[in-house]
Amino acid sequence: MMERIQTTAPLLEVRGLSIVFDTRRGPLTAVDNISFELAPGEILGVVGESGAGKSLTGTAITGLLEPPGRIAGGEIVFEGSRIDNLPREKMRRIRGKKIGAIFQDPLTSLNPLFTVGRQLVETIQTHLELNREQARKRAIDLLAEVGIPAPEKRIDHYPHQFSGGMRQRVVIALALCANPKLVIADEPTTALDVSIQAQILALLKKMCREHGAAVILVTHDMGVIAETADRVAVMYSGRLAEIGPVTQVVKAPRHPYTKGLMGSIPIIGSDPGRLTQIEGAMPRLTDIPPGCAFNPRCPKAMPQCTITRPEPLSVGGSRVACLLYEGETS
Amino acid sequence: MTGTEALVSMQGLKKHFDISPPLLERLLERKPVQHLRAVDGVDLEIARGTTFSLVGESGCGKSTVARLVVGLYQPTGGSIRFEGTDVTDCPAGEPPAIRRRMQMIFQDPYASLNPRWRVRDIIAEPLWSYGLVTDRAAAARDVGRLLELVGLNPKDGEKFPHEFSGGQRQRISIARAISSNPDFLVCDEPTSALDVSVQSQILNLMKDLQKELGLTYLFISHDLAVVYFMSDHIGVMYLGRLVETGPARKVFASPQHPYTRLLLETIPDITMARRERQPVAGEVPNPIDPPSGCTFHPRCPFANDRCRREAPALRDAPSGARAACHAVEEGRIEAAPLLATV
Question: For residue A147, is it left (φ>0), alpha (ψ between -120 and 50) or beta?
Fold first, then answer.
């Protein structure tokens, strides 16, 4: 599986992406020089605490970054061509057709004034050359596929007539209706109850596999990542701390932050007495320390960590941004 | 369980909210009177020095139980006792001798601290209102001690809440809650708004304080892993009722009620990477119009006619816990342990 991913051309390449917010007190760097690739059909989990820049990365890829935020550096290459500098109108055609998006709150991503059918048909007709009849037929098929009972009746209902879980199913149908190559799912299950969460994750995985779409799954829930993703990117203070295959990052994390993060999650069936603590909190964007952003909280910080900013280096099958691994690059 | 008497107990606790349409609509359009049974007959006992956790999905009534216990809501029926004293119909803050000993920590540390007050005044408020201090010097001394106890700097008392991060704010909430020297803390989703690395700090702090001060917790959460870490006893709630209750380790090792099994099966688990899910169909029904009989029957794979007709009561189950399920009682489901690791 891994070999196949490495030999095919990447679907998406993010190279040295930086996102800056211009404020009255000067520019704030929210995402700082991150690079990663995504193979066709791959599920990449992006995990981190609030403010780590994980949602912004997804927003930048979909071209939905709003001022005062702006891409200050780097490039986003999708299917071999740059999409970060496209004019609004051109990007709008890619978004929806080639890149679908699923957001946290299904109530705000659906228009409450239109029936779900009208929203689906409109999106389908914008991106695919189908007449009204055919588009409606496709919408009904999609609703059936995402597990909505009686789709031919439900298609004429308004978003408020659906429950939270059903609404998120509609949003998934909407994101996949033009057969996109990439789906950005930003906290798609955070607003849902646990028993519904499982249904939606299974559905998202199944639908993307069947439609051949790659997924960037942004979440703060390591459990969701462990079950769903092929690879994981761990973000901290707008930087990439570690990126690698999910089993490696979850079972044998290398970066001290990932280690701390994994140890701080309570696990059913293990009784540690106390949880691992990472002292302090993630720094605000205004006072990110020099060197490694994690150094004030890091149990293994060395004097060098306050001076040199570590670049992600290949260690095993992962890339880790930590000076501890300087000598063992492979 | 220390074997001592229960510090807090509830019998047949009920809270029904009147959600009827306005009188005129009822008269003109013949709309019926409607009640939402948020809590519908809950019995539980919390032993001194232990943690009892309530788990369940949103709308199951767990937060309503929390608010009933501290007197923020008046119950519709049933009783609440604190050290054997009936506090059922006492309004919030009454009687002060007992209310001083029960405090609450809320979910959202951004909404539960007054942004216009300095931290020292927030923490000192219970001290003044229960008459535990009489002069400013004593209050300042106590506030400094409390801030240190929760891992903050005594100088932080001069600051305002907006100068702190979410985790630090939750520490301030905890300092305020323990300032009146309580025995019993009701913690309503205290870490749900926090990031995991901060969540572990707060959970560790709560465990340390429990040991140091001999606190008893009623802990409310929807996160089963957090509940497993914190609790001695748990109660699983579904549509206003307890469906299973017992020692936490026993319930997790061998869940009896089909709903408990569903919850345990569906949580994303970081130890079982790449496992295929068996998603369970269905959603929580509308609590305004709950299903007949056992309210879980529309989603239950073991439901039969009796389940649709008759509501089950909590009975001793083979695992040592108590479950409200006809199928468990009749032995229709084999009580196979789900988690071999526990």
Answer: left
